Amino acid sequence: MKEIKNVLIVTREYKSSRTPKVGGTGVFYKNLCAELVKRGISVRVFLISKYTFDVEEDGVKIHSVKDIFKANPFLELLRSSTGKVKAFEQIHFKTYLSEKKIISDKISAWIKKNNFHFDIAETHDFDGLALSIPKDIPYVIRCHGSWSVLEKYFGYKKVHKGRIFCEKAAFKSSKNIITISRYNESINKNLFDIKEPKLIYNGIDEKFYKPVENAEIIPESVFYLGNVSFEKGAETLINSFIKLKKNYPEASLHFIGKPNHYPDYIADIQDSEIKNSVYFYGNKSGPEIVDLISKAEVVCFPSKGENFSLSLLEVMAMQKPVVCSAIDSFKEIIEEPVNGLIAREENFHEKISLIFKDDDLRNRLSVNARKLIELKFGIDKMVDETIRYYQEVK
């Protein structure tokens, strides 16, 4: 197997001091890169974002260029206008391909100017960004969740056709694919006809996300971690909480994550007891999340669709009981009633009640949740498997 000394990550998301508000993919790549550096591997990130900058954080060197469409008003106008008319569809697709070519040229110029050499590159599946990786660099695509998947399986609307076109083109020309769950593998095989992907579960730092000793738990508190949205099940949980309050008048609901319009949604509820029992904390840093989740009696994940959930793993690592929606990616992690509970949309309140009133159940779920993370979903295991796969790629 070849030795891996220099790794290139090409991405539209990376969590850094200059890009603090990113999704799960950005957090994932920050964690992966930091761990690769700890193993003596040089990592450079080529980032396409809102900003132009160069910075080094956690030993990772980040080179960010401005989003091509935002930097080129003519190209943005062409992309936008051609995407609305069926007759201009091929021009729309070519516009997106030209964006990938511009990114590829920028990467090649950056490499040549600095005399870089990379043993392997990695990128995500969304936007077909693999089309931008110079042909002389072997690369892998990791399936975090493409626009094609979000549209077909998770009900996302108004996805740009050019994005889907590029994703299909990228998979068609790529042979080294990492999937992040068996469910994720299944839907990507069906959608893109990919062959022999490598399954590597996402991992989290269980040394950071761990139980907080002597934490002051808020009695009858229900927590939610993630973007507060319809797709993530925010309304499902709010409706279940209203039912829960009938039997547990002291119960409270706590949202950690971008609140979007939901504070106004709660403000429109007539019942003041409900309004005064719901809290929105907004986006929080890792240490702040640990501090808040440590106070939870139960944490709910009512999402309508997920490829995989790092947030769920983080909460389980903190030895908290969880109630999850009955979607395939959650059922791949949760074994009821061993390490968590599974709920239908209409009975979240019933499953939460079980945890509130049964101390033995709550303790058993909590301890077994932590054990599962230590056994199967630690970041060391994920990084070791990633490096071994990198070594196999030609």
Description:
The protein is α/β, with parallel strands linked by helices. It folds into two domains: 6-203 and 379-392, Glycogen Phosphorylase B (Rossmann fold, 3-Layer(aba) Sandwich); 221-376, 3-Layer(aba) Sandwich (Rossmann fold). Helices cover 44% and strands 17% of the residues. The chain contains 16 helices and 14 strands. The strands form two sheets. The chain has an eight-stranded mixed beta sheet. Helix 1 (24-38) crosses helix 16 (379-392), helix 4 (89-114) crosses helix 6 and helix 8 (234-247) crosses helix 14. The longest helix has 26 residues, at 89-114.
Shape: globular
Low-confidence stretches: none
Architecture (CATH level 2) name of the largest domain: 3-Layer(aba) Sandwich
Q: How are the strands of the largest sheet arranged?
A: 3-4-2-1-5-6-7-8
Given the structure, what is the number of helices?
A: 16
Which class best fits the helix and strand makeup?
alpha/beta
**CATH top level of the largest domain?**
Alpha Beta
Q: Overall mean pLDDT score?
A: 96
Query: First CA to last CA: what distance?
Result: 10 Å
Query: Helix-strand pattern, N to C?
Result: EHEEEHHHEEHHEHEEHEHHEHEHEHEHHH
